[in-house]
Amino acid sequence: MSAIAAQEPRLNDEITTRECRLIDFDGNQMGVYPTHQAQQIADDMNLDLVEIAPNATPPVCRIMDYGKFKYDQAIKAKQARKNQNKIEVKEMKFRPKIDVGDYTTKKKHVLRFLEAGNKVKITIMFRGREMAHPEQGLSILERLADDLKDVAVIENQPKMEGRNMHMLIAPLPATAKKKKDSKNDEGKDN
């Protein structure tokens, strides 16, 4: 028996207990019945007997249309996945000797990523003798964090890993909320 099958509740003839607490189709408690009698009641209604609380004493069984129940669960799960926020982590790479024009261009890209609601990993790459001056990379990260302080928050402080220095920034909750509201407005216009 697979792990997935083990999570499924027992149905009809799979229920092996002698008696069970029975709940009818509408959710009302009917009392404690012998399992074979509860199964007969479910069969008379052309529905399934489903064990919903096997660890209770006595186990709780419910009369329901199990196929319809599974279908409704699948629809709810699909809807929950659809409404999830997917946050991507974008990466922008800098060098310690970056020029002003390149810096502003990359800063605009980072801003665009943040406005889209994505987190941004800023990486400063060091080569050769640049490794002797990590403070240059740190100053670039601090300058970028200062420039973006009104739209982003630093999630992970700058940290050196090998030849690279990393910092993770995330959009402010207000910025992400504006993005979500504008998406909803676009959906209404169409």
Automatic annotation (TrEMBL):
Translation initiation factor 3 N-terminal domain boundaries: 12-80
Domain of life: Bacteria
Listed GO biological process terms: ribosome disassembly
GO molecular function (one): ribosome binding
Pfam families xrefs: IF3_C, IF3_N
Cross-referenced InterPro entries: T_IF-3_C_sf, T_IF-3_N_sf, Translation_initiation_fac_3, Translation_initiation_fac_3_C, Translation_initiation_fac_3_N
Zinc keyword on record: no
Keywords tagged on the record: Cytoplasm, Initiation factor, Protein biosynthesis
Places the protein is found: Cytoplasm
UniProt GO cellular component terms: cytosol; membrane
Translation initiation factor 3 C-terminal domain span: 87-171
Subunit structure: Monomer.
UniProt xrefs under HAMAP family: IF_3
Family of the protein in this entry: Belongs to the IF-3 family.
Function: IF-3 binds to the 30S ribosomal subunit and shifts the equilibrium between 70S ribosomes and their 50S and 30S subunits in favor of the free subunits, thus enhancing the availability of 30S subunits on which protein synthesis initiation begins.
Name by which UniProt lists this protein: Translation initiation factor IF-3
Species annotation: Adlercreutzia rubneri
Gene transcribed to yield this protein: infC
